[in-house]
């Protein structure tokens, strides 16, 4: 009888284990089905080269759906019914045509983060600066060439915090002449993002309300490639929340090497990325090849991208993939929206070797030796090929950032004592090019800085005179990071004029300065702003009007101008000025030509 009981107990135990394994496997399959269409969890090889550049067409539908990336079901803004959205692939030199169908219930735009848009400034996708938004129920075609660009990019909404609701996805420009192609077998894309359960528009209304005493709203979770795990015990009563939501899982084959394209698509959070037992060999940052640099942990600020190569040369097992949110960057008090968030800052996924078991990893994290909240040391990265650094500077622009309450007791960000206010239905490009509005007739709150010497060298001294840390992103260019330092006075002895690395996003520390340099060769209206989306909405934006004489000669496509005609014109009548009066002796305190 005792043997029979033991056998029966063994059968029950095996049944429970089998059921658990089937349940876990079922959840993994469900997770893969949810993400199958965006291709993030499938290894791929670069696009085949073509004899000549071709046009690659995509359709992107923006809509509202219910989704639970971290287990908590909420209504999100989705791209083609998924999050993250559809990955766009092209080769260097190809033309990209994307038809955007807007069905989210409000106007929207799409910005192509990191793309220079040479000759197509009107497709940069910034509401109130380069275009009017796409009305709900309408479609719009973005049509631009990748030209000589290659690397890792992304696209996202650029109006009223919408990308934090889900309108964000990778954009990959492959290089048929990739100098590192022989160093890896396959590629993966890995996105890192923070995630909010409340509607961003509701939180934004609170953040921008008079006498709000808190800081930027705290996320509820962090996601790796759209997958995370929320503590459902903290969910409000009546919520739909699935415990132990499946984690992101990337499979590798022993002996193979993988190029991982890392993208921080967050609205607030700075990530530190690592994979236990697997050093990261950096080969690209923000679309620029670098000489190989090996690190164990890599800081990835909002808007930044890296390509790293890993070698699947460890024993067959599961290893933790870590995208840790650096909570040292988060300023918080008990008046902050969601200050008591149940967020787990230690966001994880799994690197799974072929042949490894189903269990969770038991690997050990690398020690943390990173400076809190900053970019990788700018002097650590060097361009793969020597580059001619422009200079000396023909124009110097100083942008001093402060935060304070305005006359309505709303906390705003100020650049040189002016807080940007978006005018969605009267974009700068249309007013300047089509409506002949001289630059000195723009309101001061448009934060316009102009320079007009073709081929000139521009130095921007970005002075952060507040306690927050800001990932600064510039449209239309990569800039050379000449130097950075503490205090609010630039120390020119610290500038690297020999071999600085070019980026389009760089973190400016609290109470510190950074100097960016680039060549004036891309006429347009280019935004430079903090990529913390809450700070964007608080007015931390300047507009760089590059080469206005050349810009005044362009013809904006009718499809772009028609977007403005579709908007409510009751408050958007724009005065007309003659073209001959457009260029002028400017107020040098605000605008520099």
Could you please describe the fold and organization of this structure?
Residues 64-177, 187-356, 426-548 form the Plastocyanin-like domain. GO terms for molecular function: copper ion binding; oxidoreductase activity. This is Fet5p. Keywords: Copper, Metal-binding, Oxidoreductase, Signal. With 593 residues, this protein is mainly beta. It has 2 domains: 53-93 and 145-375, Cupredoxins -  blue copper proteins (Immunoglobulin-like, Sandwich); 393-550, Sandwich (Immunoglobulin-like). Helices cover 11% and strands 33% of the residues. Strands 10-9-12-17-14-15 form a 6-stranded mixed beta sheet, with no helix packed on it. Strand 1 (55-67) and strand 2 form a beta hairpin. The relative contact order is 0.13. The model is unreliable at 1-36 and 569-593 (pLDDT under 50).
